[in-house]
Write a structure and sequence with these properties.
Blueprint (H helix, E strand, L loop, with lengths): L12 E3 L6 E3 L2 E6 L22 E5 L5 E9 L7 E9 L2 E9 L4 E9 L1 E2 L2 E5 L4 E9 L2 E7 L6 E6 L4 H4 L3 E7 L6 E11 L11
Antiparallel strand pairs: 1-4, 2-3, 3-15, 4-14, 5-11, 5-15, 6-7, 6-14, 7-8, 8-9, 8-10, 11-12, 12-13
Length: 203
Amino acid sequence: MTPQLPELPFELTEFGPSGDWTYENGTLTGRAGPRQDRFVPPGGESLDSTSDAPRLLGPVPGGDFQLLARVKAGFAAAFDAGVLYLHVGEREWAKICLELSPDRPTVCTVVTRGHSDDVNSFVVDGDSCWLRLSRTGNAFAFHASADGEKWTFVRVFALGTPDRAAEASAGFLVQSPTGEGCEVSFDRIAFRATGVGDLRDGS
């Protein structure tokens, strides 16, 4: 049965391979299988060759919002990651990851418009970090935090048409592109029906 989170004002649906998703005592746990990832290489020729990874997503209510969680990953191989995921269309999606990239925990982001880009932002101490995905108007933003209080700006971007951006889905993804699998937990999950006032002031 697909877990439903009381912290979220929308229902979640599983996409991609099974993630063995569970929810207990405020913690969502998922597991990626061997060589599971969602990424379209920027140098690739085919837009239909997208690999896939376990995703748990739901339609976000209209208007500005923030989705945040503390992410802890059982890193075992390069690029294992726990992810907050944004979906606008089959070829338009984005993710902010706590990823072993390739041998140190790192905050990374990917924005896919047909093909994916790939950006490493900064190294993280330990195996956990807070991640945040937000929408303000027609723009989306990614932030990360060591404590869930002071947020570091990572990226702001547009994705899809304004109409499609207004109907985005968001949620969680787990990946293990090169390894035999990765278990990830998400706790301190919260949804706020407001955008981020100032992307760069730490709030």
